[in-house]
Design a protein that fits this description.
With about 220 residues, the chain is an alpha+beta fold. Helices cover about 30% and strands about 25% of the residues. The structure holds ligand 3IX. It catalyses: tetradecanoyl-CoA + H2O = tetradecanoate + CoA + H(+); octanoyl-CoA + H2O = octanoate + CoA + H(+); hexadecanoyl-CoA + H2O = hexadecanoate + CoA + H(+); (5Z,8Z,11Z,14Z)-eicosatetraenoyl-CoA + H2O = (5Z,8Z,11Z,14Z)-eicosatetraenoate + CoA + H(+).
Length: about 220
């Protein structure tokens, strides 16, 4: 049996699944690195052509093993984070590498964004900031035993969020009302954690038991 930590939760998952998850995370990390390098590369044409051919070949190899859309990955475990969601999946190279920890007031995530998340030069794309906030605010709701789907996410952009600079994202529950949870949070520089660069308020709604999205 192998042990994998999820927040404060330590859980003995079957060793084969832990090993497989580790490989999936390593592949996600490797491809994330490729994506970041791709967005920064001022490479000569022959190097770009080599990268195109090699990448296409790798993609072709993996495509042969694709699971049908809507089916569970064999890496899934009810007590461990899914590896492929676009917001935080460690195995999803498009997902920013979000790791969340519990704090006294709520949750916190420390992250440094790579070149692939750049919008205006040197600044994080606003949609990526919104994705990070959606994710970390959702964790605050989930770790308080509430969860729910994002019904709205209101973001205010106060200052630029820099690329390749350590950031801190914090979130806390603001209000609970039946199936509704209001969560507040913000992105700041790790070196200046009290000054919000982007702040957000989100409403998470736990769907009714007969919600059609639950039938899938
Ligand atoms: C501690 C260890 C834990 C270990 C955990 C392990 C792993 C952790 C895994 C995951 C971590 C967690 C988080 C990260 C994951 C994901 C984050 C991203 C989340 C998303 O990315 S999620 C996708 C985008 N999201 C949608 O895809 C939603 C589409 N939508 C709907 O699915 C429905 O729309 C729904 C369900 C929202 C509501 O549907 P419904 O049928 O329940 O609605 P209903 O009318 O009954 O409203 C009920 C009450 O909400 C109020 N209300 C509703 N909507 C409102 C709005 N927009 N503004 C203001 N108020 C609103 C009403 O006014 C009423 O309020 P009242 O009761 O007071 O009248």
């Amino acid at each position: 049996m192998g042990t994998e930590a999820v927040g404060t939760l330590a859980y003995d998952a079957p060793a084969a699944k832990v090993d497989r998850r580790r490989l999936i995370e390593q592949l996600g990390d490797a491809v994330r690195g490729l994506v970041a390098a791709t967005c920064a590369a001022e490479a000569p044409p022959e190097e770009l052509e080599r990268a195109i051919a090699g990448t296409r070949q790798l993609a072709e190899g993996l495509r042969g093993f694709a699971r049908p859309l809507g089916t569970a990955s064999s890496s899934e475990d009810p007590l461990l984070p899914h590896l492929y969601p676009a917001g935080h999946g460690a195995g999803n190279p498009v997902a920013p590498p979000v790791h969340v920890e519990a704090t006294e007031e709520g949750v916190r995530s420390r992250i440094t964004l790579g070149r692939q998340y750049e919008g205006p030069r040197g600044r994080t794309h606003g949609g990526i900031s919104a994705l990070l906030l959606d994710e970390v605010l959702a964790y605050a709701s989930t770790s308080a035993g509430r969860g729910g789907f994002t019904a709205y996410l209101n973001t205010s952009y106060h200052q630029a969020v820099p690329i390749q600079v350590p950031l801190e994202i914090r979130a806390r529950i603001d209000a609970e009302d039946g199936r509704k949870t209001t969560v507040k949070g913000f992105i700041a520089l790790e070196s200046d954690p009290e000054v919000p660069l982007v702040s957000a308020t989100a409403l998470f709604v736990i769907p009714r038991a007969d919600y059609e999205g639950n039938q899938k």
